[in-house]
Specification:
This is Zinc ABC transporter ATP-binding protein ZnuC. With 267 residues, the chain is α/β, with parallel strands linked by helices. Helix content is 30%, strand content 24%. The longest helix has 18 residues. Bound molecules: adenosine-5'-triphosphate (ATP).
Length: 267
């Protein structure tokens, strides 16, 4: 895959194909998630992004292909949204305590980390979009994950709250020393810290660093050049090495060279 490390991948997806009633949702997807890296999945509506996350989380069985977890992988998941029964009053504290093996001290710590201690006794049904996302992030933190999976975390969060929420996600990643895999349409917010972007529309259309992918014709065809401008603004020095095949290989803590990698796997 595009980002390689001397560390073993936390999760490997191998030749994943998913069909729903003989309609292909995903075809031959390969992906490695390495420790402490950030991978962002983008793509058009209905392109299979959520299905890919569900396959990785083992919530959706692939029609063919394999999902391999490394020993010791702990996954925290922030879903796109959750359904809260309005007739069932439940406080934030109670909701978090329902998480398996949740300790009171960890709940208080997570609430403080995400600056939502003041919401402890609030009803879940009354939270704003941004507050709810923080509560879901707090819940995902409770089992001290080494991989955090987020499905469109900015959805339902107003524009001013989005940058703040993303800062929190990034801060959480550094605190937990974990990898992040997220679906996001808000590439302008996440790209500065993203190691690899995967653009999927049933298959992998293109993949690479934000800089590389923003120049990919397939990516430009799907998204126009809106992201290219942002990438130019946010361009930062990746410190990767390339192997003999031109793939990026890196050790997350000892990056050494700037990357101008051309993405592969075009459609
Ligand atoms: N359980 C299911 N049964 C049948 N079809 C499904 C099922 N889940 C997803 N699909 C279909 O698979 C395709 C991919 O859906 P998916 O939700 O993964 O796309 P997405 O990229 O996450 O979309 P969006 O950006 O709109 O959230 C869609 O055509 C969807 O209708």
């Amino acid at each position: 895959m595009l980002v390689k490390s001397i560390q073993a991948p936390l999760v490997q997806l191998r030749d994943i194909t998913v069909e729903f009633e003989q309609k292909i949702a995903l075809q031959n997807i390969n992906l490695d998630i390495y420790p402490n890296t950030i991978t962002t999945i983008v793509g058009p509506n209905g392109g299979g992004k959520s299905t890919l996350l569900k396959v990785l989380l083992k919530l959706q069985r692939p029609t063919s292909g394999r999902v391999v977890y490394n020993k010791g992988v702990r996954i925290g998941y922030v879903p796109q949204k959750i359904h809260v029964d309005p007739s069932l009053p439940i406080t934030v504290k109670k909701f978090l305590s329902l998480q398996k093996n949740a300790k009171k001290a960890d709940i208080l710590h997570a609430l403080a980390q995400l600056s939502i201690t003041h919401l402890t006794d609030n009803r879940l049904q009354k939270l704003s979009g941004g507050e709810m996302q923080r509560v879901l992030l707090a819940r995902a933190m409770l089992n001290k994950p080494n991989l955090l999976v987020l499905d469109e975390p900015m959805q339902g969060v107003d524009i001013t709250g989005q940058a703040e929420l993303y800062q929190l996600i990034h801060h959480t990643q550094q605190q937990l020393n974990c990898a992040i895999l997220m679906v996001s349409h808000d590439l302008h917010l996440v790209m500065a810290d993203t190691n690899q972007v995967l653009c999927i529309n049933r298959h992998i259309c293109c993949a690479g660093t934000p800089e590389a992918i923003s120049n990919d014709p397939t990516f430009r065809y799907i998204f126009g050049d809106q992201f290219s401008k942002n990438v130019a603004f946010y361009t930062h020095h990746h410190n990767h090495k390339h192997d003999l095949h031109g793939d990026v290989c890196c050790t997350p803590h000892s990056y050494t060279q700037q990357c101008t990698h051309q993405s592969k796997n075009r459609s």
